[in-house]
Amino acid sequence: MNNAAREEKTLLRQRLLAAHRQMDVALRAQYSCRIAERLFAAPCWQAAGTVFCYAGTGWEVETQEIIRAALLQGRRVGVPLCLADGVMEAHEITAWEELAPGAFHIPEPRRDTPVIPPDAFDLAVVPAVAFDRAGHRLGRGGGYYDRYLPQMSCRKAGVSFEKFVLPAVPHELHDVCMDLIFTEEGEYAWA
Q1: Residues in CB range of 113: below 8 A, 6 or more apart
Q2: Domain count, the chain
Q3: Is 12 exposed, middle or buried (0-12, 13-18, 19+ CB in 10 A)?
Q4: Domain of 134, in residue numbers
């Protein structure tokens, strides 16, 4: 990607992060519940025995309900742990309360919990600053998911508020597309 494209990506990310942070807290919670309900009704969720799911921060789709539901349903759950140099691992948790603020103030599992290999997941629930209508994602810019997602062979489901699913986001050839995106208004599916 050339410098102009990188700058375009950075400016778009900054603008969208500001819009995320301005979103009404009650509306974010309401939409997050709707997104979770759509995910729970999907065949990819119903068939998944092992689920990768991020722990949402204040501006993202909240995932506490998703993680709690997976655990209550007896699914194995892996939550990302950010390490040095853009490397991420998924560690198994058995309760939401096991998470504590880690890198970038994101709720993370402890390092001494079991690692779940990327190829062991049946479904990955993936965050983004924005997605586009072709399944591309615009992340925070740290490259953690860019390095981790290619190691996964499972279905990848993005979760997003509808207003952050754009006609197009800048992307590169190596970027991994989502198979599905769930929003409070519906679902996008490609695979």
Answers
A1: 91, 92, 93, 98
A2: 1
A3: middle
A4: 3-189
What does the pLDDT look like over 100-138, one tens digit per residue?
998 778 899 999 999 999 999 999 999 999 999 999 999
The two three-digit tokens of residue 143, written as one number: 């490259």
Distances (CA, A) of 122 to 20, 32, 37, 152: 29, 22, 19, 9
pLDDT at 105: 82
* Euclidean distance between CA atoms 136 and 152, whole angstroms: 16
Residues of the chain with confidence (pLDDT) below 50: none
Question: Considering only CA atoms, which of 104, 66, 100 is closest in space to residue 84?
Answer: 104
Tokens of 125: 């629930």
pTM, rounded to two decimals: 0.94
CATH number (domain holding residue 88): 3.40.50.10420
